Amino acid sequence: MKTIKDLNIKDKKVLIRCDFNVPIKDHKIIDDSRIKGALQTINYCLENNCKIILLSHLGRIKEESDLIKNDLEPIAKRLEELLEKKVYFSKKTRGVELETLIESMKAKDILLIQNTRYEDLEGKKESKNDKELGAYWASLGDVFINDAFGTIHRAHASNVGISSNIDSAVGFLIEKELNALNALNCPEHPFIVILGGAKVADKIGVIENLVTKADKILIGGGMAFTFLKAKNIEIGKSLLDEENISFCQNLIKNYSNKIILPIDIAVTNNFTNDENYREKNIEDIELDEMGLDIGSKTLSLFKDYLKNAKLVLWNGPLGVYEFTKYRKNTDELLKYIVDNNLKTILGGGDIVASATTAGFKDKVYHASTGGGATLEYLEGKKLPGLESIK
């Protein structure tokens, strides 16, 4: 894969596709991790005397009201603070105003272009990789660096569209992501996979790709109940992915020695954080109960399988993490991993958010910045944002 160091960028106008899709509330950034993730590539371009033009999306743009809440200007201000340097901002995604700003740039100037998905308001030109839009953005720079791992599984005008038109490479963030995830291609053993989250459907491709490589797959979260149902265990009102019961049955049949399911569950009667819960063995779940977390016996069981692991991949929390009562065991297992210095890759999305909340994100081997991108990589799919650069 061609990286930024393989390009001659000195004194050039460099377009960088970043992933500034960060949580914002009342125009204030809640978590700036993704902004910080772009700094290494931006600083490298500053060292090479470049004019730096940044592109990113933020949220989804379906109607006029989405424009205000997904304005990138707060990102420009946060970048200024982190870089201790002026960051210019274009309110337009194309046109004379943007072009004038670029023409007036000096070496080491930084310009952030407004949310690329503003172009989705009429005809989804960004998300559908409009060729004219991709070519236009490409015309604004000399070279292109894709450093947005979170969108690398999508063919958008701001990644595939641009890289189809000018010399391109990946930035340091994507390089770091790929180096970490490549460890999964020929993993050290024992290789333990932990899968949580809501639905089996979201993880079918991942399971199929990893079940032959992994020594054990530890299953928690809402998806565990579909596996339990596949074994004819009563799950009460717990989450069920009915369409994939047969998939779970086949997996249990063919890989019974690898699939590890919960042996006890934290149950309650309603989907709320207000009621008390009790822990029950899985055989004792009643019709009016629902499971919202693994139990303490399951936590101990998972720790036993992890204790000698040489590599761990974890995707998805083990309980309903947005409820404080049901994040305990996810946090406890994260702490166990960190305390025992287990080489662990957190596979993006909710488990990285959980690790961030618990203060463990920066203590594991690698926490991926991509949710869907990481899942598609783990499924073995080709990623359009990479293929266009190859």
Question: What is the fold's blueprint, element by element?
Answer:
Layout: E1 13-17, E2 24-25, E3 28-29, H1 33-37, H2 39-47, E4 51-55, H3 65-69, H4 73-83, E5 88-90, H5 96-103, E6 110-113, H6 131-138, E7 143-146, H7 157-163, E8 168-170, H8 172-181, E9 191-195, H9 204-210, E10 216-219, H10 224-230, H11 245-254, E11 259-260, E12 264-268, E13 278-281, E14 290-294, H12 296-306, E15 311-315, H13 328-339, E16 344-346, H14 350-358, E17 366-367, H15 372-378, H16 384-387
Parallel strand pairs: 1-4, 1-7, 4-6, 5-6, 7-8, 9-10, 9-15, 10-11, 15-16, 16-17
Antiparallel strand pairs: 2-3, 12-13, 12-14
Content-based structural category? alpha/beta
Number of strands: 17
The unreliable regions are none
Radius of gyration: 23 Å
Number of domains: 2
Beta fraction of the residues? 15-25%
Q: Output the CATH topology of the largest domain.
A: Rossmann fold
Q: If classified by CATH, what would the architecture of the largest domain be?
A: 3-Layer(aba) Sandwich
Can you tell me the CATH class of the largest domain?
Answer: Alpha Beta
CATH superfamily of the largest domain: Phosphoglycerate kinase, N-terminal domain
**Rough outline:** elongated
Largest sheet: 6 strands, parallel
Q: End-to-end distance, in Å?
A: 6 Å
Number of helices: 16
Share of helical residues: 25-40%
Q: Strand order, biggest sheet?
A: 5-6-4-1-7-8
Mean pLDDT equals 94
